[in-house]
Structures are given as C-alpha cells and as structure tokens.
C-alpha cells in the first residue's frame, strides 16, 4: 500500500538540516509521498527506512524480464488502465504452443510455420517471440528432446517451459538456460522448489492457481520467499472467467494499489478455444485488455497480420503519433527521370506506400510535405495536405532542380486536390494515383510503361 | 492479507434503443463485457452487409454461396436471413454513388421497401461515399419505410439537418450520428441532432471506424473515452449505443485485398480477410461497440460465439 506523507515523516531522521533541499523533514516527506523527489536526497536516512520507502514508492506493477542477449523482453510495468491516460509501455508477446506428446511431423510443421512469420511493419520486426513447451508426457527425456528440437528449429523464440514437476523443470532449464526461458508452473504444491530453481537461474517464474483468491495467497507466499520475478495466470478454463481474472489482476495492482497482483499476466488462448479464428478473437481481446503473454496453438499470416498490427497500434504512445521527416526520398535507384509520388508525413502511411513502391521494383521518388503527421484524408480534412503545402515542399526540397520530371502522382483519395495543386505549380501536371497503396505496383508499372512506349 | 476483488461502480447507463420492432441495443452500466462489475445490458448484435448492386471483389466462397441472388437485393436479403441468421441486415446503396451508377433516391426507396417486405429482420440503411447524395437517399428511403424504426447510417456534420429532420423527425426512424474519431465531435453532433428535435430513443452513434493497423488505436481510444464519459461521468449526450460498419473498412485494406499471386507468403486471401474482419470487430466490441456490420458468414459465426462466451 502507498505510504502517506505522515507515514514517511515517521521514517525520517527529523534533523531539519535542509540538506535534502527542503526546509523541513516534513516538507521533504510530503514531496516524497507525491513521488516528486528521490529518497536518496536525504543522506541521513537509515537503511531500514530506505528499503521500506523504496518498496512503498515502487511502481504498482513490476517490470519483469525474460530472454537473453538481443532476444530480451520486458513485460508489465504498466501504470494505466486506458491508453489515453498515459501510454501502455510493454507490449504483450505471442507464443506458439508445443507439447511433447505431439507427433514429430506436427512439431516440425509448427516450427516451419513459426519461422515463416517474420516481417517488418513500420520499422518493427514481427515474429513469434516465445515457444510455449508443455510437458504432457511426464517423461523427462521426451520433454528434453522437444525442447532441443524447438530450440534448434526456432532460433528466435525464447522457450517457456511448462511443467509442474520441479525435477523435470530443472533438467529443462538446464537444457535451454542460455536463452533465458520462462519457467511456468509454480503452484500451491511445488512453489518452494520452483522458486529455488527460478532464483538460481534468475528466471521469470509463471505462477498459477485455481482462481483469483488462491493465486493471491500463493503470490504472497512466493513474495515471502523473496522472489518477485513473476508472471501470473489463473487456471480458469472459460473465456468469461479468464477475462474477469486478467482485468481484475490489473485493477488490483493499479486501482487498489495492491502490489500482490502487481505483475503481468499470461493467457493460454489455445486452452480456451480450439478453433483458430476463435483464438484470434480471444487474443485480440487480451491484446487490448491486459495480458502480457498470449499463447496460441499455431501461427500463420492470417493470424499474425491483424494481431501484430493491433499490438503495434495499441502500444504506440498516444501523445506522440509516429511521424517521418519531411523531404524528398529516393526509393531504389531512382534518377532524375524517375516518377515522383507525394504522400503525407504520417509514419504508417509513409511506410505502407514506400513498401509498395519498393515492391513494384520501379525506382521512384517520394515527396513528403509537412502534413501535420496525419493520414491522407485526415490531413486533407484538416487543411494540411493541400496545393499550398505540396507546392511549398516542392520548393523547399528543390525538387525542380533535382528532377527533370514535371509530373506528380497524388493519392487517389485526394483526387479533388488536382486542380488546386496545378494552380500552385503551373509548370506541373498532376496524375491521380490509386486509392489504396496495394494497387501502386500495378499503377507504377502501367505509368512507366506508358512513358516508355 | 486476503484478496479484495476490485469492483468499479459507475454512475451512468447506456440508453436502451430498439431497432425495428424488438431488437434491443445498449442498456449496459459497465464497460464492455465487465459482467463482474454489473449489468452488461443487451448482447452486442451483428448485421450482414447487402448491396444494391452486384459486388466486386467479394470473397469467393461468399459469392459462391450467394450465387445469382447477388443480382437481386430481395433474394439476397431473404437468403442471408434464413441461412446465416444475423440480428439485422445492412442494406448498402453503393450504386447510388455518383460515380457508380448514380441510382436515384426513388429507386433506392423502392428497393428498400421490397427488401423490408421480404424479410422479418430489422434493417440498417447505409448510403454511398457521397454525404450529399446520402441526404437525398435517406429522405426518400425513410419515407418509404416510415415508422419502421430502422437505422440510417449515417448523419454527418455536413448533412445532419436534412437526415435528422427526415429520418428522425418526419418518418420515425433511427439516425446514426457519425463523427471522425474524436470524443468532442461525437458529442457535438449528438447535441446538434438533439437540438434539432431528434429524440435520443431515435439515435445511435458511429464515432468513426477503421481496420486494425490503420489508425485503429485512435478508434479504440475514442471508444474508451466515449464509454468512460457516458458511464463514469454520466454524460447523457454520449449514452447512446454504438454501431460500426466494420466490413466497410476491413475488406479494402491490403491484408484482405491482396491476392495470393501478389503476396504468396501471406497464404489464403479469404482467410486473411476473415481474420481482419474478426479482429477488427472484437477489438471495437471490447471497447464499446454495441453492433457491428460484417460481410463474411464465418466472421459472423466466430464473432457471435465470442460474444456468447463472454456473456452467458
Ligand atoms: C486515425 C484517424 C484520425 C486521427 C489521426 C491519425 C493520423 N496520424 O492521421 C485523428 C483522431 C487525430 C483524426 C483527426 C481528424 N480526422 Co480522421 N481519421 C482517422 C481514421 C480512423 C484512420 C486514418 C488512417 O490512419 N488511415 C490509414 C492510412 C494508412 O491511410 P492513408 O493515409 O489514407 O493511406 C492510404 C491511401 O491513401 C494510400 N496512399 C497514401 N499515400 C499515397 C500516395 C500515392 C501516390 C498513392 C497512389 C496512394 C497513397 O495508401 C495508404 C494505404 O492504402 C480515418 C477513417 C478511416 N477509416 O480511414 C479518419 C478520417 C480520415 N478522419 C476524418 C476527419 C474529418 C478528421 C478531422 C478533420 C475531424 C475534425 N473535424 O477534427 C480531424 C483532423 C485533424 C485535426 N483537425 O486535428 C475523415 C475524413 C473525411 C473525408 N473524406 O474528408 C475520416 C475519413 C473519418 C470519416 N469517415 O469521417 N483522424
Ligand atoms: S536531509 Fe533528511 S534530515 Fe535533513 S531535512 Fe532533509 S529529510 Fe530531514
């Protein structure tokens, strides 16, 4: 629970020496309670007081880590329930589920599908970050051979070891310790052994219990053993209940300010539904509302395209829309005779359009004016993408000196701008392009084809 | 310490609106699917899209199942009602677009009337890309379907007077107030329509939709804020159920529209389209939408199952 100014005052040396920069200990205490200053500013505080204070002023939800090297991820650390209040900071990570009772072929084909999903969207690489490896056989060697295969097969995925048997868990951890696995399976029966193992290897420990109450009790016991690198999940098997659990764990941490539930959560979507599209629906729900690890049966582009895009959307900073720098960009080996396209400085739009221009293999130029960082129609509706702004960019980036072409291709959605631009740039001709960037490759090939013939 | 489950009691409640004779929307006093906090109101509902013209670039299996019926909106509507059992039908006048055939308001009204007579489900009437034209279509269609309590998608800032007066005041139907992803704009348009005299019972809203990945974070945040204003701050001007034409957005983005030849590594095109439609719907339902319009029967099935498993 959060400490009040008075609680903190009681912990201070009460010398009123002003070395902290405040006139009195009480004034310092009040500021500390608001989180506006660091406890270290008082040189005379006892060690005990310091630990108590740092615990009390710690963020409501812990930031935890898993993985290793350049595949190291942070989870949790969220401070708000809604992204307009501030921002969601640590995006959820997706996992594909394997078990050691699966056939070899099944394992192999899953590995292949996992590796196939790897692409870039708005400068972010998208792939499945976790392989959730469940021991169902109860046999150590069978489990170890699964871990080995998946580890060798999916180099990018960090293993999540799922077993409740501490013996098997230890062998499994040793098999893949260098990749910083998640250890999933501390429960009411095994938690002491599991905590020891997690402590020894410094692992993120998945904790599970039947329902919210039992999970709460178990987390307290684990905290009492001094371990706080945790990932929570209830054993609920119905979607409705899991939603209740995940939302209330988050609210307990952030609204009730109770740090017992101040940890990220995991959702096993593949246990809530068999069908792929239903798993997609469930995963969508939990990207928005509050899970940090989401396990799916399998992955392919039809699942990845919406899910990864959604995650990228929800976890952008609402105060800072992603913008690209204005300017004249060269795509491919464009020369002074290559076609010129204009679009806006909204990062999403720029990356979609430049991606399509690249795909077309037609070398081209892209002119990016100051459009307020908005999408094409938004900028147009706001008056920021107009004949004037485009003409200004043509001048500012010396387009007429750099290029011989006097034709400019505009987005199809703003065909109405044609006359306006031609008024501002009398020596130019405006060509109305496709409405969707996906149609650009064909458009560009036709366009350059016409020029040549 | 023992666990104390947090409960959020909110002051406001979303208005209950009846579409057609008895399809009820809204009525919730908690955030979407927060049954642990209180009353989730009426189950979110799903409509299916029907066009007045032969659709281009629709998913293959949908076109196969619909067969020749797509040439006749009445047959098409009847088939959808019987086969897929959506909660409502969304009749969309694509062909009224000045660039797409420029169908007259009178013709639209005739089609709407025939469809309404052939089915028992309530209708949502959608226009074309021209707001100016929509004002004219809606006036005629609302007249032809007077007092049916059907919804018209939508009244926007530039045509709300015309649409509000005809649909909501003169002919006893429901006006959907559409704004552009901004809480204040949504509120302002609702107020303008109310000042015009449209009764809140005759209103729904669409605060702006997009497909996942395409400015969707603004859509979700706008919905979050609208719902919190309505429920937490008890802002009566925003306590209207929300309807969103998801399929209008999701089927045109690249993820759905690119063929397998175009992007071989992405795999089956229809599967991608369905996935975009499902994910976009679920995301907005979880942020506050009460009704969505879909195109693919498989999406309908999955989204319905999703809703049912969260609300039993
Ligand atoms: C997110 C959003 C916003 C966000 C802005 C986010 C941003 N950074 O742009 C916010 C909430 C701030 C916003 C504000 C407004 N918005 Co807005 N917004 C949207 C929304 C939901 C999505 C836009 C988006 O991100 N699209 C994705 C990008 C990638 O699309 P795009 O830039 O068009 O690019 C595509 C194509 O144009 C093409 N393309 C792009 N460049 C090029 C170049 C060439 C050469 C070619 C060939 C093709 C091409 O390729 C891309 C992919 O296909 C749309 C509705 C919708 N579903 O689209 C409304 C929408 C664009 N907004 C609209 C409006 C009116 C506004 C406001 C003016 C509202 C107001 N009155 O205040 C304000 C303007 C800003 C202001 N005054 O401050 C309207 C525009 C109506 C119209 N037809 O004119 C829309 C369509 C909503 C609606 N139906 O009413 N908006
Ligand atoms: S430095 Fe410490 S002891 Fe001195 S006034 Fe500040 S709080 Fe009090």
What does this protein look like?
By secondary structure, chain A is an alpha/beta fold. Chain A folds into three domains: 5-46, Orthogonal Bundle (3-methyladenine DNA Glycosylase II, Chain A, domain 3), CATH 1.10.15.40; 63-315, Alpha-Beta Barrel (TIM Barrel), CATH 3.20.20; 327-452, 3-Layer(aba) Sandwich (Rossmann fold), CATH 3.40.50.11600. Chain A is 42% helix and 17% strand. Chain A has helices spanning 5-11, 25-33, 47-57, 104-116, 140-153, 166-176, 191-201, 212-224, 239-254, 269-272, 276-288, 301-314, 347-360, 376-381, 387-396, 399-402, 418-424, 440-452; strands at residues 63-68, 71-76, 93-99, 119-121, 124-126, 130-134, 158-162, 182-186, 204-209, 230-234, 266-268, 293-296, 327-331, 340-342, 364-368, 407-410, 429-432. An eight-stranded parallel sheet of chain A has the order 10-9-8-7-6-3-12-11. A three-stranded mixed sheet of chain A has the order 13-15-14, with helices on both faces. A two-stranded antiparallel sheet of chain A has the order 1-2. In chain A, strand 6, helix 5 (140-153) and strand 7 form a beta-alpha-beta unit. In chain A, helix 4 packs parallel to helix 5 (140-153), helix 5 packs parallel to helix 6 and helix 6 runs parallel beside helix 7. Chain A is globular and about 75 Å long. The relative contact order of chain A is 0.08. The model of chain A has no long low-confidence stretch (mean pLDDT 94). Chain B has 312 residues and is of the alpha/beta class. Chain B is built from eleven helices and ten strands. In chain B, strands 8-7-6-5-4-3-10-9 form an eight-stranded parallel sheet. Chain B has a single domain (16-310), classed as Dihydropteroate synthase-like (TIM Barrel), CATH 3.20.20.20. In chain B, helix 6 (183-196) links the parallel strand 7 (174-178) and strand 8 (203-206). At the A-B interface, helix 8, helix 9, helix 11 and helix 12 of A face helix 7, helix 9, helix 10 and helix 11 of B. The structure holds cobalamin (B12) and iron/sulfur cluster. Chain A: It holds the Pfam family CdhD. Chain A: GO terms for molecular function: 4 iron, 4 sulfur cluster binding; iron ion binding; methyltransferase activity.
């Amino acid at each position: 629970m959060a400490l009040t100014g008075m609680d903190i005052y009681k912990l201070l040396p009460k010398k009123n020496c002003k070395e902290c920069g405040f006139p009195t200990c009480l004034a310092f205490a009040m500021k500390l309670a608001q989180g506006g200053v660091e406890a270290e500013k008082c040189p005379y505080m006892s060690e005990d007081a310091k630990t108590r204070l740092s615990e009390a002023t710690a963020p409501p939800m812990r930031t935890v880590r898993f993985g290793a090297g350049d595949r190291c991820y942070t989870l949790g650390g969220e401070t708000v329930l809604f992204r307009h209040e501030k921002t969601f900071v640590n995006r959820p990570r997706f996992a594909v589920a394997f078990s050691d009772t699966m056939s070899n072929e099944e394992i192999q084909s899953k590995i292949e599908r996992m590796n196939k999903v790897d692409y870039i969207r708005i400068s972010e690489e998208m792939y499945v970050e976790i392989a959730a490896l469940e021991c169902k056989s109860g046999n150590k060697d069978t489990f170890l051979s699964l871990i080995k295969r998946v580890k060798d097969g999916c180099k990018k995925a960090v293993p999540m070891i799922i077993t409740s048997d501490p013996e098997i868990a230890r062998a499994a951890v040793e098999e893949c310790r260098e990749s910083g696995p998640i250890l999933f399976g501390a429960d009411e029966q095994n938690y002491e052994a599991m905590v020891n193992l997690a402590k020894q290897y410094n692992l993120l420990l998945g904790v599970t219990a039947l329902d919210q109450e039992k999970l709460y009790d178990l987390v307290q016991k684990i905290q009492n053993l001094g371990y706080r690198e945790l990932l929570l999940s209830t054993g609920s098997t119905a979607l409705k209940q899991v939603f209740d659990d995940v939302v209330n764990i988050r609210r307990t941490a952030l609204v009730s300010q109770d740090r017992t539930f101040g940890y990220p959560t995991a959702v096993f979507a593949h246990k809530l539904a068999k069908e792929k599209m239903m798993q997609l629906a469930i995963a969508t729900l939990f990207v928005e509302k509050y899970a940090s690890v989401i396990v799916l049966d399998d992955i392919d582009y039809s699942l990845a395209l919406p899910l990864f895009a959604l995650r990228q959307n929800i976890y952008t900073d609402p105060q800072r829309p992603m913008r690209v720098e204005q300017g004249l960009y060269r795509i491919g080996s464009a020369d002074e005779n290559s076609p010129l396209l204009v679009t806006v400085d909204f990062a999403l739009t720029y990356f979609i359009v430049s991606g399509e221009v690249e795909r077309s293999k037609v070398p081209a130029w892209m002119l990016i004016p100051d459009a307020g960082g908005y999408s094409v129609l938004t900028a147009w509706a706001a008056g920021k993408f107009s004949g004037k702004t485009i003409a200004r960019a043509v001048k500012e980036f010396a387009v007429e000196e750099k290029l011989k072409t006097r034709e400019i291709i505009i987005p199809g959605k703003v065909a109405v701008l044609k006359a306006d631009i031609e008024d501002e740039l009398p020596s130019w001709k405006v060509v109305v392009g496709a409405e969707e960037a996906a149609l650009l490759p064909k458009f560009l090939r036709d366009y350059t084809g016409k020029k040549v013939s | 310490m023992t666990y104390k489950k947090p409960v959020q009691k909110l002051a406001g409640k979303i208005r209950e609106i009846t579409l057609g004779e008895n399809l009820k929307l809204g009525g919730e006093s908690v955030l979407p699917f927060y049954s642990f906090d209180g009353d989730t109101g009426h189950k979110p509902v799903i409509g299916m899209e029907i066009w007045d013209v032969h659709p281009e670039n629709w998913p293959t299996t949908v076109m196969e199942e619909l067969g020749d019926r797509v040439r006749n909106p009445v047959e098409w509507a009847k088939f959808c009602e019987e086969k897929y059992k959506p909660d409502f039908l969304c009749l969309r006048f694509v062909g009224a677009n000045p660039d797409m055939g420029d169908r007259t308001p009178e013709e639209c009204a005739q089609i709407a009337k025939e469809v309404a007579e052939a089915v028992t489900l309530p209708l949502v009437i959608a226009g074309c890309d021209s707001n100016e034209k929509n004002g004219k279509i809606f006036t005629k269609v609302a007249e032809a379907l007077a007092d049916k309590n059907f919804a018209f998608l939508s009244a926007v800032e530039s045509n709300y007077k015309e649409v509000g007066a005809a649909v909501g005041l003169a002919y006893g139907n429901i006006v959907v107030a559409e704004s552009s992803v901004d809480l204040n704009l949504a509120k302002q348009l609702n107020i303008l329509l109310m000042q015009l005299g449209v009764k809140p019972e005759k209103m729904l809203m669409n605060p702006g939709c997009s497909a996942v990945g395409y400015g969707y974070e603004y859509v979700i945040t706008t919905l979050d804020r609208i719902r919190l204003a309505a429920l937490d701050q008890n802002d009566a001007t925003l306590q209207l159920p929300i309807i969103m034409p998801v399929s209008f957005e999701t089927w045109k983005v690249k993820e759905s529209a690119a063929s397998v030849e175009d992007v071989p590594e992405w795999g089956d095109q229809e599967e991608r389209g369905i996935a975009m439609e499902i994910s976009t719907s679920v995301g907005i339902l979880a942020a506050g939408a009460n009704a969505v319009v879909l195109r693919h029967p498989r999406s309908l099935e999955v989204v319905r199952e999703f809703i049912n498993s969260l609300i039993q």
